[in-house]
Amino acid sequence: MLEKVKERLVALGVTLSNEPTSTDDYLLTFAVNKTTDHIKNQTNLDAIPQGLEHVAIDMAVGEFLFTKKSMGLLSVDTLNFEEVAKRVKDGDTDVEFAVDAKSTPEARFNAFITYLQHNEVDFVKYRVLTW
Description:
Layout: H1 2-11, H2 23-43, H3 53-70, E1 85-89, E2 94-97, H4 105-117
Antiparallel strand pairs: 1-2
């Protein structure tokens, strides 16, 4: 799962250190292990079900980004959060952006991390009761 998390981060535009002893390597491994343990604890299973694999990857990515940002090791500029055009009018050029002026890049970054971290509602289908 670690390699898939790295691929997801690279796809999102995050540059990772290639050194095996880097902070990134440790934080990634920790995020993957924490996410794996959390899902297994919530579902009472010994392994992550295939249906939760992508959720687990996103959760690990969210954990990694949140930790790096909290430590001051990640700039909000790492990811591209440019405003997206919601509506474009050709005659007399009228452009309306999908994000309001009060939404800062940091607010969009935090919302993205929250989205990646998911919530336990995804686990309900896979929960097993134990006695």
